[in-house]
Design a protein that fits this description.
This protein is α/β, with parallel strands linked by helices and 360 residues long. It has two domains: 212 residues, Isopropylmalate Dehydrogenase (3-Layer(aba) Sandwich); 144 residues, Isopropylmalate Dehydrogenase, CATH 3.40.718. The protein has a ten-stranded mixed β-sheet, with helices on both faces. Strands 6-7 form a two-stranded antiparallel sheet. Strand 11 and strand 12 form a beta hairpin. Helix 1 crosses helix 9, helix 5 crosses helix 6 and helix 9 packs antiparallel against helix 10. The longest helix has 18 residues. The chain starts with a strand and ends with a helix. The structure holds adenosine-5'-triphosphate (ATP) and magnesium ion (MG). Magnesium ion binds next to loops. The site of magnesium ion has 2 residues, from loops. Its cofactor is Mg(2+); Mn(2+).
């Protein structure tokens, strides 16, 4: 009997619907491991960090939290943010702290249509939508550079500066990552997004690096598109895209647009990768804590489950990831849908249906 491969996963449900969707993803992953006849297993540790923890301790995570996380094989994250804590505190205190310290510089966000889910795109019946948005996750507009009170002019005259940081190394590694990803896909195309007509330093550096790297991948079709034009293209010519690589801010916005076009923010999965594997990578749905529906059993767990599939790929279990994605298609195709995608099923009902589909 071959030895069981055990993957140690740190679960951080954090805020709002994060708890509901992480519980769902864990149940589905455990069902998958249970059915593997001992081929692999998941060993979970759960961390109680987030906005409740902040209310008790004044911190979003333990002081030595990164030390506690660093030896896990992966982090499975829910969502962070709650109306009682300013967003920049909750985000920087937990999620971005992990992303930055564990050098998770590539954020991968697949977007595709699911059977049984209606897209707001009128053309949805006769088009394919199958993209991956690759987001630069370590610098750009979210580098945290700048400050307030630059003018010294007092109340009413305040000036704030928010700078974006682009390094040649940072641009090159994410652009290469996008090209390498495109090589694994049926449609071998990389679309680069900037706003280099209006932002003449960082964005132009990005464009220069893109052109240079593209020369190393003559087998891959390329285009450079301004972010405003790309927003329109997402809606008007979705079939024309495959891998879309963009800065931290632009890809953040475009991936929300993409998941809405696929049917709901609740469907979108993401992986924050440290491609060198020096630190754990983090897998999380794209959506936030959704205070408007939290605690009501209405959350769509598909984004979190899709993120679990990305985690399986990261563990070198692509067949298991495919099984999980297939189970998702079986369940949505059968019309077992949460309210955000037009159904009446609860989070638990979708979870149970996913487990049944895996066992079936
Ligand atoms: P963040 O700033 O963290 O990205 P946000 O303010 O953009 O968060 P979300 O919390 O993602 O907002 O919620 C946006 C909308 O999407 C809300 O109406 C919410 O109910 C809905 N939503 C988000 N996640 C889900 C989900 N898993 N299932 C159903 N609806 C969801
Ligand atoms: Mg958002």
């Amino acid at each position: 009997m071959p030895e069981t491969r055990t993957f140690r996963i740190a679960a951080i449900p954090a805020d709002g619907v994060g708890a509901e969707v992480v519980a769902s993803g864990r149940a589905v992953l455990d069902a998958l491991a249970h059915g593997s006849d001992g081929a692999f297993a998941f060993d979970w540790a759960e961390f109680p960090w987030g906005s409740d923890y902040y209310a008790r301790t004044g911190k979003m995570m333990a002081d030595d939290g990164l030390e506690q996380l660093k030896d896990f094989d992966a982090i499975y994250f829910g969502a962070v943010g709650w109306p009682t804590v300013p967003d920049h505190i909750s985000l920087w205190g937990l999620r971005l702290r992990i992303c930055q310290n564990f050098d998770q510089w590539a954020n991968v966000r697949p977007v595709h249509f699911l059977p049984g889910v209606t897209s707001p795109l009128r053309k949805a019946d006769d088009i394919e939508l199958d993209w991956v948005v690759v987001r630069e996750n370590s610098e750009g507009e979210y580098a945290g550079l700048g400050g307030r009170n630059f003018s010294g002019r007092g109340p009413g005259g305040e000036v704030a500066v928010q700078s974006a940081l682009f390094t040649e190394v940072g641009c090159e590694r994410i652009i290469r990552f996008a090209f390498d990803l495109a090589r694994t896909r049926t449609r071998r195309k990389v679309s680069s997004v900037t706003k280099s007509n209006a932002q003449q330093y960082g964005m132009v550096l990005w464009d220069d690096v893109f052109a240079r790297v593209a020369a190393d991948y003559p087998d891959i079709e390329t285009e450079s598109v301004l972010v405003d034009a790309m927003s329109a293209k997402f809606v008007l010519r979705p079939e024309d895209l495959s891998v879309v690589v963009a800065s931290n801010l632009h890809a953040d916005i475009l991936s929300d647009l993409g998941s809405a076009l696929a049917g709901s923010l609740g469907l979108a999965a993401s992986a924050n990768l440290n491609p060198e594997r020096r630190f754990p990578s983090m897998f999380e749905p794209v959506h936030g804590s959704a205070p408007d529906i939290a605690g009501q059993g209405l959350a769509n767990p598909i984004g979190a489950v899709g993120s679990a599939a990305l985690m399986l790929e990261h563990f070198g279990l692509p067949d298991q990831a495919a099984r999980l994605n297939k189970a998702v298609e079986t369940v949505t195709g059968a019309g077992i849908l949460t309210r955000d995608v037009g159904g009446t099923a609860t989070t638990d009902q979708v979870t149970k249906a996913l487990i049944d589909a895996l066992n079936g």
